[in-house]
Amino acid sequence: LELESALHKALERGEIVLHYQPKIDVRAARMVGAEALMRWKRGGKLVPPGDFIPLAEETGLIVPLSEWALKEAARQAKLWQLNFGFADSIAVNLPSRMFERSDLVEHIHQCVSAYGVPHRAIQLEITENNLMKDLQNVIPALHRLNEVGVEISIDDFGTGYSSLAYLTTLPISEVKIDRTFVRDLGITPQSSAVVTAIIALARAMGLRVIAEGVETLRQMDVLHRLGCSQMQGFLFSKPLPPEEVELWLAQTV
Ligand code: G
Ligand code: G
Ligand code: NA
Ligand code: MN
Questions:
Q1: Helix, strand, coil % (nearest 5) of the chain?
Q2: Architecture, CATH, for domain 19-35+71-252
Q3: What is the pLDDT of residue 60?
Q4: How far apart (Å, rounded) are the C-alpha atoms in residues 135 and 127?
Q5: What is the C-alpha to C-alpha distance for residues 182 and 84, in angstroms, rounded to an integer?
Q6: 48 lines ligand 1 (CB under 6 A)
């Protein structure tokens, strides 16, 4: 309960910040975007999202937190556009709670308009399980987001129970191969079979594919050979505060 009221105040007090993990295209050898990940600066310490996102989800605080994250990501995209010519997108993780709102698309529109960035400056990540859990709300929202140019990425892909038939009808742009498959690449034959299948599926559906949790050169090599050139993971960079991302932007844009 104490944590709950502290989290409630954290947003007003400016204690919530976004860190950004670069997304890399290894073939083009450049950064092609970033994923925003929340952190809570509490008494000189950085509380990782695993320690407060679940509570935020339970209490509903995830809604104002996510609304703030969308706005902050738009602000950051504008700053990077002005200072570094950044023209890629920042991905924001959206919980299914956000799709229950009829004004999600309007909120995103207001965020990008407020900072004068195009809608494609914001990309949304929704986990495969959240997507399937709430299709009734998610599908119409995805279509409206797609119409205004906000791209959707399916996070933790391969861990859920999505019907492939359904997926092909959804206006999504990218699938993100879950890190559990990446972790075992080059170790178990099953993992490379799954990754091969996901890449083939994505290609057949005209989707981009990105791998998360890439930690070793070996994983990078296998992914690249299998046809996945976009990656994210500790091999390239952990999630960084914005000023450290700027070292990447200064080099690669
Ligand atoms: O940053 P880290 O690797 O510790 O993230 C841990 C978990 O918290 C991940 O599952 C991530 O998706 C989730 N998470 C981080 N930031 C956000 C956020 O802004 N919104 C939501 N919904 N989840 C987040
Ligand atoms: O899928 P999700 O949005 O939850 O992923 C974000 C989480 O993954 C964050 O907690 C981030 O710190 C973590 N992460 C990012 N890169 C790596 C990596 O290479 N290895 C591992 N184990 N975790 C990573
Ligand atoms: Na994510
Ligand atoms: Mn993920």
A1: 50, 20, 25
A2: Alpha-Beta Barrel (3.20)
A3: 94
A4: 12
A5: 31
A6: yes
Q: What is the structure's pLDDT at 252?
A: 66
- Out of 11-20, 48-57, 157-166, which region has the weakest mean confidence (pLDDT)? 157-166
Q: How far is the CA of 19 from the centre of ligand 1 (A)?
A: 10
Atom number in ligand 1 closest to CA 62? 22
Structure pTM? 0.96
Residue 110 has φ and ψ, to the nearest 5°, of -65, -40
Between helices 135-148 and 104-115, what is the axis angle to 10°? 30
The model's pLDDT over 59-95, given as tens digits with 9 standing for 90+, comes to 999 999 999 999 999 999 999 999 999 999 999 999 9
91 CB near ligand 1 (under 6 Å): no
Phi and psi at residue 174, to the nearest 5°? -150, 145
Helices (H), ranges, 116-188: 128-133, 135-148, 164-167, 179-183
Query: ipTM score here?
Result: 0.94
How does residue 150 score in pLDDT terms, banded at 50, 70 and 90? very high
250 CA → ligand 1 middle, Å: 26
Considering all CA atoms of the chain, what is the largest pairwise distance in Å, rounded to the nearest integer? 50
Spatial distance between the Cα atoms of 54 and 59, rounded to a whole number of angstroms: 9
Q: Is the pLDDT reported for residue 134 higher than 80?
A: yes
Q: For the chain, give every domain's residue range.
A: 19-35+71-252
CA of 231 to the centre of ligand 3 (A): 13
